[in-house]
Amino acid sequence: MFLVPPSLPPTPKDLVDKAHILLDRKLGPSKVLHLPESCERFSRDESEAEGRVPDLVVLAETLDDIRDTLTVSVEARVPLTARGAGTGRTGGAVPVAGGIVLDTTRMNQIKEIDRGDLVAVVAPGVILKDLHAAAEREGLFYPPDPNSWETCMLGGNIAENAGGPRAFKYGVTRDYVLGLETTLMGGTTLRTGRRTVKGVAGYDMTALFVGSEGTLGVFSEITLKLIPKPETVFTLMGLFGAARDATVAVEAMIRRGVVPRCLELTDSGSLDAMRAQGVGIDASARAMLLIDLDGDMTTCERDMERVGEACDEAKAIEVLVAQDASQRDRLWAARRELSHAIRNMAKNKLAEDVVVPRSRITDLMDAVERSGQEYGVRTLAYGHAGDGNLHVNFLWDDDEDVPKVHKAIEAMMRHVIEMRGTISGEHGIGVLKIPFLPWEQSAELIAVQKGIKDQLDPLGLLNPGKIFAPGGHKAC
Ligand SMILES: Cc1cc2nc3c(=O)[nH]c(=O)nc-3n(C[C@H](O)[C@H](O)[C@H](O)COP(=O)(O)OP(=O)(O)OC[C@H]3O[C@@H](n4cnc5c(N)ncnc54)[C@H](O)[C@@H]3O)c2cc1C
After folding, report:
1. How far is the CA of 86 from the centre of ligand 1 (A)?
2. Ligand 1 pocket mutation pick from 43, 45, 89 by most atoms within 8 angstroms of CB
3. pLDDT tens sequence across 372-409
């Protein structure tokens, strides 16, 4: 595995000892882990970022636990990283300076599902699938669905502004966050936002916290918008002889006024990974679209017809409709496991999560192929074609190929920015994309963001080494 080593020095032992004594006193030793073997699993997430084993792990259960931990972090000058399920793809929850990890998995209460106000109020450690199920039991729907929905948690979703296959039709996490309870370094708790659809009092601080990658504050309560559950869902699979044909079909669907609930594109290499998982896909297919349509029966039937026409126009090899829920689940399970399946295809893999304007998706596929060919690196891509967001994977076996891989990634990033796209659609900057942020954003814009960070976390102790090139946390 190709790892990105920690960029900050470890936390000095005397500071850790002070924090340990203070945390034991405030929270009680049962909520504070300190043995390396207990803390080890909190040193990484689902990315290539390599962390340090945290010196201390707090298992928070209440707002007071969060407040006390953030107070101790400042008092003892020890860095702190909040953590949900650790499924992040860019190292957001990886403690690059060691210090304290604040684990929120015990804060897993769904406090309210209100059918009248169409809101849910949840603690940060609620697993997304549990919220989906609770909302659906009430005939309601929480659309954001990162493919990690069976394990990832709402606090992490808010911090990363998670997207997912349904984003094309329904938007991303940000579009559903009405209000937040957030504690700042030092222990001040803010309630931002509201419980109503409308509300424009003051700056939109909730929007600032969404997507802040655990660098501005720690969430303890989240108020979310729900919508009525769509009456029915149909899944279709379109197989194509080339990725270009699949992207032509996407354009043709949109031209016909169809906005699918999900519109997932899988290229030739990714199809091979799915076949290796035992999914039976026609051997001549070099690209696939997985399409979910939802709404009432009449709308779905009309949209299915239009999707069929669009696929015909793009010379699809065939279009299949999943006949029942189990066929649907099988297709989606294979798609969800793609990332792990691809990992088995080579010794090393780096995945980038880039977005271009939808009309440039074919150009993006070409740019990926060109970057791979130019540097002799194997690439494959899949992702959310409806919103121009592709997960591009770079695979290699020989460690000597690392410089070539970096060059191929850099070439692709430059193409993405030229196309007025963005370096990250949903995974955030974390540790791994820090070098690319100045390619997309001006020095002035980065300076404004750092100013906000300094205002809320003057000692730079909250999740140091993330988003911006590290200058070291200022306390040590
Ligand atoms: C197989 C797989 C598929 C994925 N598919 C998608 C996808 O389709 N779309 C997508 O957007 N992402 C996807 N992801 C990435 C990941 O699941 C999301 O980023 C998710 O939102 C992370 O949630 P988490 O609970 O695991 O957070 P973690 O990884 O634990 O943390 C992520 C960030 O959130 C911060 N954080 C966590 N809790 C809090 C809190 N209470 N307060 C403040 N900050 C906090 C952490 O400090 C860190 O910076 C995928 C990951 C995997 C492994």
Report:
1. 6
2. 89
3. 899 999 999 999 988 999 999 999 999 999 999 999 99
- Whole-prediction pTM value? 0.94
Is residue 198 domain-resident? yes
Residues 309 and 240 in one domain: yes
Structure-block tokens of residue 302: 């009309």
Residues of the chain with pLDDT under 70: 1-6, 471-476
Its domain, for residue 204, covers 110-228
pLDDT for the residue 50: 87
Substitution site in 43, 48, 100, 148 for ligand 1 pocket (most atoms within 8 Å of beta carbon)? 148
Q: Are 48 and 94 in contact (CB under 8 A)?
A: no
C-alpha torsion sign, points 414, 418, 419, 425: positive
pLDDT value at residue 26: 98
Ligand 1 centre and the CA of 160: distance in Å? Answer: 6
Q: Report pLDDT digits (tens) over 44-53.
A: 999 989 889 9
Distance CA 130, CA 331 (A): 21
Query: What's the confidence (pLDDT) of residue 476?
Result: 40
Which protein residues are within 6 Å of ligand 1, measured from CB?
Answer: 45-46, 81-89, 92-93, 104, 124, 146-148, 152-153, 155-157, 159-160, 162-164, 213-214, 218-219, 339, 426-427, 463
| Distance (Å, whole) CA 375 – CA 398 | 14
Residue 122 counted as domain residue = yes
User: Is residue 65 a part of any domain in this protein?
Assistant: no
Show contacts of 19-22: CB within 8 Å, 24+ apart.
19/55, 19/56, 19/72, 19/73, 19/75, 19/76, 19/78, 19/99, 19/100, 20/55, 20/56, 22/72, 22/75, 22/76
- Output the pLDDT for position 340: 80
- 6 lies in a domain? no
Sign of CA dihedral 431, 437, 443, 449: negative
Q: From ligand 1's centre to the CA of 69, what distance in Å?
A: 21
Domain co-membership, 385 together with 329? no
**What pLDDT score was predicted for residue 281?**
87
Q: Which of these three, 311, 339, 367, is where a domain ends?
A: 339
> Strands of 119-122's sheet, edge to edge?
110-114, 119-122, 218-225, 177-183, 189-193
Examine the domain organization and report whether 151 and 215 are in the same domain: yes
Which residue among 44, 87, 127, 424 has the greatest number of ligand 1 atoms within 8 angstroms of its CB, and so is best to mutate? 87
